[in-house]
Every structure is written in C-alpha cells, then in structure tokens.
C-alpha cells in the first residue's frame, strides 16, 4: 500500500507541466514593425518510461510523454505599420491548461528548438493581451 501511495504522490510531484509565460516575436516583410506578443505556452517536465529492452517490448509499453496543451484558445493581434494591401493580423495559441501526453504535431512543435530564432529584426512594439 505504501509503495502505491508513494508512486502516486511522486508521479504527481514529478510531472511539473503547466502554462508558462512566453513572448513570441512576429514580423512580416511588408510591415514596419516587429510585434512582441506576451502569451502562455505549455512547458515543464513529464514522467516518462524508456526501457533498455526496447526491442523486446511493444511500442505501447513505452511511454514518451511531453508537456502539451489540454485546453487552449486562439487570440489575434494586429501587426502595426503594415501597408493596406497586406493582411496585418497574426493568430497565436494561448495555453489555458496543460497535461502530460503524446505530442500532437497538428498544433505543437515536438522537438527541442536548437537555434534561437525568436527575435526581432525591425523596431519592436509590445502587445499585452
């Protein structure tokens, strides 16, 4: 009984997956400004199981969970300084709640970013929504 309770408590404590503040930098070639958008993304640690005997086990026995969206909504921001012929809107996800689960490539980047490209090359405007 104690080992089951310890496993449940440790599993909950070890999975630290929650909405986290994040700034997205958005710019379009035609527009005069870069927009810095403050939003929330899912970030954190999830318990995973990876056996040394991978070749002997079924894939369903291996668990590779990531911190991903449980609930999200989309907001739209207006990029300033765009000419009339350009669509000046940018839609982005906002994490409402998060979970540990399989990564869905339909709406998540499932690999760790190696090169930091989230920056502005034009004058910056801040968007707090």
From TrEMBL:
The keyword Cell inner membrane is assigned to this record: no
Top-rank taxon, per record: Eukaryota
Signal peptide interval: 1-17
Subcellular location, principal: secreted
Localization annotation: Secreted
GO BP terms, alphabetized: G protein-coupled receptor signaling pathway
Gene Ontology molecular function terms on file: hormone activity
Domain Glycoprotein hormone subunit beta: 16-120
Example of a GO cellular component annotation carried by this entry: cytoplasm
InterPro entries linked to this entry: Cystine-knot_cytokine, Glyco_hormone_CN, Gonadotropin_bsu, Gonadotropin_bsu_CS
SUPFAM superfamilies assigned: Cystine-knot cytokines
Keywords from the named record: Disulfide bond, Glycoprotein, Hormone, Secreted, Signal
Family: Belongs to the glycoprotein hormones subunit beta family.
PANTHER family assigned to the protein according to its UniProt record, in alphabetical order: GLYCOPROTEIN HORMONE BETA CHAIN (PTHR11515), THYROTROPIN SUBUNIT BETA (PTHR11515:SF5)
Subunit structure: Heterodimer of a common alpha chain and a unique beta chain which confers biological specificity to thyrotropin, lutropin, follitropin and gonadotropin.
Protein's name according to its UniProt entry: Thyrotropin subunit beta
Taxon lineage: Eukaryota, Metazoa, Chordata, Craniata, Vertebrata
Gene: Tshb
